[in-house]
Design brief:
alpha+beta, Type Iii Antifreeze Protein Isoform Hplc 12, two-stranded antiparallel ribbon, 3 helices, 9% strand, elongated
Length: 91
């Protein structure tokens, strides 16, 4: 019974969230990115209601918890519906 308890303690981990080595390949598919719900024209202000969080999240795209870094900026180029938002898209 003690051995089973120790095994359970190991399975619970240390409580720190991180992407483990065996999850590296699937992290892009599992995470969500901020994407345009509608066409956002060049020099148009980006509002929260213009965005949605959808999978997958390509490297470099803004994650949903970065929404405050995206809203109230002007679009540098036209962003089409479904396109993920990158830092280069913001003016």
């Amino acid at each position: 019974m003690i051995a089973a308890t120790r095994e359970l303690e190991l399975a619970l981990g240390d409580g720190i969230k991180r992407v483990e080595e065996n999850e590296q390949e699937s992290v892009i598919v599992q995470r969500r990115a901020l994407r345009a719900k509608k066409t956002i024209n060049e020099k148009e202000g980006i509002r929260e209601e213009d965005l949605e969080a959808l999978r997958p999240c390509p490297k470099g795209a803004f994650a949903p918890n970065d929404i405050h870094r995206v809203t109230h900026h002007l679009a540098r180029t036209t962003i089409y519906p479904g396109a993920e938002i990158y830092p280069k898209d913001l003016g």
